[in-house]
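Sanity check. The docking grid for magnesium ion depends on where the pocket ends up, so I'm generating a full predicted complex first rather than guessing from homology. Inputs follow.
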Amino acid sequence: ATPVAMTASTGQLTRRGVITTRGHALETLARIDTLVFDKTGTLTEGELRLEQVTPLGALPAARCHALAAALEQGSEHPLARAIVAEAPETVPVEQLQATPGRGVAGEIDGVAYRVGNLAFVQELSGAGSVPQPVPGQSPVYLGASDGLLAVLTLSDQLRPDAAQTVAALMAQGIAVRLFSGDEPATVQRVAEQLGIAHARGGLLPADKLAGLRELQAQGRTVAMVGDGVNDAPVLSRAHVSIAMASGVELARNSADMILQSNRLSHLPAAVDQARSTLRIIH
Ligand code: ADP
Ligand code: MG
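Predicted complex below; grid placement will be based on this.
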């Protein structure tokens, strides 16, 4: 393709709501054979709703909710935003420390607390029995140094065009994968709903990166689509990366393209356009 054709094509993509931030993006997009999706906030709306707070210790549900919200107040994570939005009261917290892909730690009235995934909270609270996660819902745990306090259950919805997008990408000959930090059972269920055969859950940011490197070592040309702080390393290392417009700033700055309207269906359209601009026949 001539430089003029490339520029025209980039302009057309922009009008379709796909902003290109780096020069190589269109050419690389034309050549991808594998695309990896993040789940929460990418394939799903990320507009989570807090369904239930189930106490696991001595504190009542409302107090557990307030403690969790206090810890989450500074977090940009979609789970955190949903917990804070519906908090019953404000509680002062100190020593806040977020760990991407795991959760947040902090101190309230001199007591250490953690909120996040089970493994992260159990490092503080010790093992304890927890209810089986409800399929399709994401559990967030709250614990103190003397034990687990609660499980908060949040529900998320698939984006309306997620299934059609996955099908369209596959029809373009692109292998679709799912890498998520969420509970493996929840991730598996989403993968089944979308017809994605290869899905991995419980991944830390470094695990997502290792998963990407494995695919690249197989000689694949890989695109990554994500929205979170936990996706930033893998977005920077993918051959070409796309961030959701609703994603956090770090994710948007790490990506080569931005899906302006959060419309996943613009992805296969962009691949089509990139391929015809570059005249790559598949
Ligand atoms: P995904 O890869 O699906 O976008 P993340 O990697 O962002 O998910 O999060 C993985 C898991 O880590 C979440 O499902 C949650 O259990 C936990 N987690 C991460 N950050 C937070 C937070 N701020 N509050 C509660 N839980 C969190
Ligand atoms: Mg995400």
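Relevant for the grid: The chain has a mean pLDDT of 93.
Also worth noting: Residues 49-155 form a domain with the Calcium-transporting ATPase, cytoplasmic domain N fold (CATH 3.40.1110.10).
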